[in-house]
């Protein structure tokens, strides 16, 4: 079988070493003679896994002690609703920064729960190049209970690399597609959430990092599975958690530590993205439509500006083992998602293919 590199935006590729370990332990986990998915989440072994995974995640991401970490269900979309249910308080209003599809979706969902103001913070210039135009909101932010934004717009490949300035207001971030990709100052955030299926593990589990002083303010009608206080008090086990997904995340965290931690991961991600963007910069055949400062390190979008050629590209790439390069239908073209688990060799193989395809079809 040809070597396959999976450029899917999510559910995305997992580290091979993690899948191999899971395979090895599948029938006999912790010498229990059963798999991890068949044991009680309240039993000794799973509780140990839960505690250890939280510790590892805290260590890898350098999360301060005054933040709680929750392992929930419902994906990022669940959090689109949970955030306003839990964080709307005395000010009665939230600010949503719109940088594209996902931040727009978050704002739309929030409107079901509270009053919001929504600001467009990106622009498309006359050449079609998308840029984020504003990151300082310190003049208006403090009239809101929180300010929400998306650090990485997965569909367009627009990343906001500078943490928005919101003064003393509470900053909430959807980090679904770039969590654990780079070192960040967690203390700048009130709350961070991410569905696991891009950069942390498989689909079915969602991580929330929430500052302690924001817990315990949920509106009365908040379902207990969405109530941060309830979930904190029950170690994210108010109901049966997605134990197998949690287990796989725990292996991913251990794997990251073994690989040298986030510093090493960040360097590797920067190398991968630079290879691809440098190639695009020097190409007259492909174009990327994102301003230099906002080019995502995780999702690299490009196009030949010809729908037929794009389709041919995707089909031929797939035949060569370079999978899931079709862009999201909202944008068209191609998208290479190069999350933590994508090895440099995958990016090199993609560039080699792009070059060959360009020469054959120019
Ligand atoms: C994938 C994605 C979502 C949606 O995640 P679900 O877990 O499917 O709800 C939301 N935000 C961003 C930035 C994403 O990449």
Name the CATH class of the largest domain.
Answer: Alpha Beta
Query: CATH superfamily of the largest domain, please?
Result: Type I PLP-dependent aspartate aminotransferase-like (Major domain)
- If you average the pLDDT, what whole number results? 97
Structural class: alpha/beta
The total number of structural domains is 2
How many helices? The count is 9
Number of strands: 15
Q: How is this structure best summarized?
A:
The protein has 2 domains: 17-259, Aspartate Aminotransferase, domain 2, CATH 3.40.640.10; 261-360, Aspartate Aminotransferase, domain 1, CATH 3.90.1150.10. It contains 9 helices and 15 strands.
Sum up the structure in keywords:
binds pyridoxal-5'-phosphate; alpha/beta; 362 residues; 15 strands; Aspartate Aminotransferase, domain 2; 17% strand; pyridoxal phosphate binding; single chain; Aminotrans_V_dom
């Amino acid at each position: 079988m040809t070597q396959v590199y999976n450029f899917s935006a999510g559910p995305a590729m997992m580290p091979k070493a993690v899948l191999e370990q899971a395979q090895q332990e599948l029938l006999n986990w912790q010498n229990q003679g059963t798999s991890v998915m068949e044991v009680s989440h309240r039993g000794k072994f799973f509780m140990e896994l839960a505690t250890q995974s939280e510790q590892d995640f805290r260590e890898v991401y350098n999360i301060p002690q005054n933040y709680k970490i929750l392992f929930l269900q419902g994906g990022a979309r669940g959090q689109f609703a949970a955030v306003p249910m839990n964080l709307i308080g005395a000010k009665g209003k939230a600010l949503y920064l719109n940088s594209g599809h996902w931040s727009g979706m978050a704002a739309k969902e929030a409107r079901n729960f509270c009053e919001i103001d929504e600001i467009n913070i990106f622009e498309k210039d006359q050449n079609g190049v998308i840029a984020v135009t504003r990151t300082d909101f310190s003049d208006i932010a403090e009239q809101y209970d929180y300010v929400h934004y998306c650090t990485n717009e997965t569909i367009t490949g627009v990343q906001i690399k500078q943490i928005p300035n919101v003064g003393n207001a509470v900053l909430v971030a959807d980090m679904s597609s770039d969590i654990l990709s780079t070192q960040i100052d967690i203390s700048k955030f009130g709350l961070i959430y991410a569905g696991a299926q891009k950069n942390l593990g498989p689909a079915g589990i969602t991580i929330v990092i929430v500052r302690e002083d924001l817990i315990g303010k949920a509106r009365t009608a908040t379902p207990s599975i969405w109530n941060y206080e309830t979930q904190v008090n029950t170690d994210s086990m108010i109901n049966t958690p997605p134990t197998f997904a949690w287990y796989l995340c725990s292996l991913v965290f251990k794997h990251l530590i073994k690989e040298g931690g986030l510093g090493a991961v960040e360097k590797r991600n920067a190398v991968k993205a630079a290879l691809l963007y440098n190639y695009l910069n020097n190409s007259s055949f492909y174009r990327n439509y994102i301003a230099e400062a906002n080019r995502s390190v995780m999702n690299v979008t490009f196009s030949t500006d010809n729908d037929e050629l794009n389709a041919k590209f995707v089909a031929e790439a797939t035949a060569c083992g370079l999978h899931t390069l079709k862009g999201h239908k909202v944008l068209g073209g191609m998208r290479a998602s190069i999350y933590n688990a994508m090895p440099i060799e995958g990016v090199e193989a993609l560039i080699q293919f792009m070059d060959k395809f360009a020469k054959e079809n120019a």
